[in-house]
Task: structure prediction
Amino acid sequence: MFSARAKLVADVRRAGLRLAALALLLVSLGLTACSNSSLTASRAGAQDQSPNSNIQTGAQTPFDPSQYRAQGQVQNQNQIQNQAGAPTLYEDEVLAAQNNRAVKVEVTCTTRVKKLLPEDTRGRRHQKFLLGLSNGTTVLVAHSIDSAPYVPISPGDVITLHGEYIWNAKGGLIHWTHHSDSPRHEGGYIDFNGQRYQ
Result:
């Protein structure tokens, strides 16, 4: 029994030394906050495919402060331009949903209204309009005006909306841009000129 205990203590000490050596190696490489999955991805040389990611795995050094400083400067320049009146457009979620031919996916975007369409008055009434995306496609928005207020928009206006995207060959549809009337479905909204329509 004594030898089994001594062996266990020796094994624990060896494991502790290995962990300490690994921690020292990670600190020397600047990987202290790196998770196992990103460390594995960087060793494999994979690229992070998420549209909002600022971290490129597979680089020589996974953490390069100058890269983030440079991006911060660009963001600050954009903020200055935006204060001068140019809106910041955000279409990543809708573009990803289009590319993946997604059905029933919640998306949020900030983009321009391209064209107003006649209201759909059959059944539940819907305000309909097209959003013009940066890739040249359009997305139809069907906003229920029986569940939410009418949004007083015109072509060229910039809106932010959240709703459910359904892919189709014409670019897709976003609906459910109103408050939820069911606990089984997330509510949506349209923000325009500082007011939320839901």
Q: What stands out?
A: The CA atoms of residues 88 and 153 lie 18 Å apart. The two ends are 71 Å apart (CA to CA). The mean pLDDT is 73.
